[in-house]
Amino acid sequence: MTERAVPILLSRDLAETLSFYERLGFENRGAPPEDWGYLIIGRGDAELHFTLDTSVDPLRSASMCYLYVDDAQSVFVDWRHLVIPDAATGSRIDAPTDTDYGMREFAVVDSSGNLIRVGSPL
């Protein structure tokens, strides 16, 4: 039996969230967000779910998750020009660092304040 967990993150605007993550290579794997009030996206084997919460304050991290990838540096290079920093929503991408727990990782904050850490083993 294969087991896995999928985070359910908060979104203040599901269409905006879908647009943000589509720029990063994710695709919608569910119904259009307006049909369900819910969003399922994926990129390779990674999957994220979002539920609508219009009370989300984008300047405070609403939710967080960790995305394991084969090469965090390469993903950062691909994404760094696609995430446009926005002071009004807090969207940003932070440069990779090597951690004392053996990972190379960087962070992305989306327009709903979700913090996505992306990492790979050193």
Provide an overview of this structure.
With 122 residues, the chain is an alpha/beta fold. It has a single domain (8-121), classed as Roll (2,3-Dihydroxybiphenyl 1,2-Dioxygenase, domain 1). The protein is 18% helix and 37% strand. The protein is built from three helices and eight strands; from the N terminus they run E-H-E-H-E-E-E-H-E-E-E. The protein has helices at residues 14-23, 33-36, 72-79, and strands at residues 8-11, 27-28, 38-43, 46-52, 64-68, 92-98, 103-109, 115-121. The strands form two sheets. The protein has a four-stranded mixed sheet. The protein has a four-stranded mixed sheet with strand order 5-8-7-6, with helices on one face. Strand 7 and strand 8 form a beta hairpin. The longest helix has 10 residues, at 14-23. The model has no long low-confidence stretch (mean pLDDT 93).
Short description:
By secondary structure, this protein is α/β, with parallel strands linked by helices. It has three helices and eight strands.
List descriptors.
122 residues; alpha/beta; 2,3-Dihydroxybiphenyl 1,2-Dioxygenase, domain 1; four-stranded mixed sheet; globular
Number of domains: 1
Biggest sheet strand order reads: 1-4-3-2
In round numbers, the mean pLDDT is 93
- Shape category: globular
Gyration radius over CA: 14 Å
CATH class equals Alpha Beta
Main β sheet profile: 4 strands, mixed
The CATH architecture assignment turns out to be Roll
Distance between the termini: 29 Å
Query: What percentage of residues falls in helices of 4 or more residues?
Result: 10-25%
Count of alpha/pi helices? 3
Query: Which range does the strand content fall in?
Result: 35-45%
Helix and strand pattern: EHEHEEEHEEE
Strand runs, count: 8
Low-pLDDT windows of residues: none
- The CATH superfamily bears the name 2,3-Dihydroxybiphenyl 1,2-Dioxygenase, domain 1
CATH topology: 2,3-Dihydroxybiphenyl 1,2-Dioxygenase, domain 1
Structural class label: alpha/beta
